[in-house]
Amino acid sequence: MVGPGVSTFYFTAGGAGMVAATRLLFGTLAAWFPAAIRWAVPAQGDVINDANGDIVGSWTETYLGVVNGNYAGNYLEGVGGRLTWLTASRTRNRIVRGTTFMVPLGVQAYGSDGVLTAQWSGDAATAANALVADTANELRVWTRPQPGEENGTSHVVTSAAAPSTPSWLTSRKT
User: Which of 83, 98, 159, 166 is deepest in the core (most CB within 10 A)?
Assistant: First the structure.
């Protein structure tokens, strides 16, 4: 699995500082990613209607440039870690959580047992929780509407975790 990827973050409309806070997340974790990895947090985006996902506006901030990974060693393609975005919400009888896949990680993130190290998990959870704090109730997990319904919702992210189990993409919704 080689090529560009996309991580989508949802914030409430008009949340100032979203670009800087998101860029800081990746910058804080750059030492865990190979130098070939680059993150560019866009300075503009869409505002969506929670209920149906329709685009209802846009936002703009200042572009702050690219963040580069800076690990010079080997890495495993298509395998890495994930950030889990936790909420206090339930919808459709499920706990609402979000996920951001963080791939590929340098080999220094893995223990001899193949599990992600406590250092990676700690650093990643700290960086993710800093994003939660820096965006003060602006970061959301969006629950898509069911087909033919307008029952989508967004939920405030209250904290984040970084599980030690490696993650990889096994399929993609089309």
Answer: 83
